[in-house]
Structure formats: structure tokens, C-alpha cells
Write a structure and sequence with these properties.
This protein has about 100 residues and is mainly beta. It has helices at about 30-35, 70-75, and strands spanning about 5-15, 15-25, 55, 60, 80, 85, 90-95. The protein has one domain (about 5-95): Beta-grasp domain (Ubiquitin-like (UB roll), Roll), CATH 3.10.20. The protein is about 10% helix and about 30% strand. The termini are far apart.
Length: about 100
Amino acid sequence: MTTDIHYRLTLVDANTSQHSHCTASTTLLEAMRASGLAVRKACRNGVCGLCRCRVVKGEITYHWKVPHGLWQKDIEQNFILPCIAYPVSDLVLDQLPLV
């Protein structure tokens, strides 16, 4: 039996923050939606950029995928595409793409 690693996920929107958990095998978009957030999404494969948000603290991985929906300036400002991103540490995200 394999155990999935759990990470703390803090989602910051305006003046509020919401705490949740996510696993290393769940995309951040799936975790955000599971926590009850109505997150904008479309392609779910890192191309459209609609789900873009920013990492304030923590680390992610895209595994073998490439975030085509981000410009270099976005990447330099810590923006990610949660539809293809997986946590590798506890995370704090802001600038959430809420519907």
C-alpha cells in the first residue's frame, strides 16, 4: 500500500484566506475545486492560462508537462497553472482565478 504525501494549501483571496490540504498526486486545480472554490478553468492541460494564480510560498512541479499558457514575465513573477501543477511542499497561493 502506497501512502500519498499530504501538504497544507492556503488560498488567499482579498482579505480572507482558506486552508485546505492536497496530496502530491492531485493537481492544484483539483484541490482548489475540492475545497469549494469556483475556479476558472478551460483546457486543463496548461495551454489556455485561465486558471493562472501565483505562488506566494512553497514549491510545485509540472512533472513532464510544460506551462504553455504562461509568458516568461509571468513565470518570473511566480505565476503558475494549477491545472498541471502538483505540490512538493506546503503552499500559499494568491491571485486566484475565481469565477
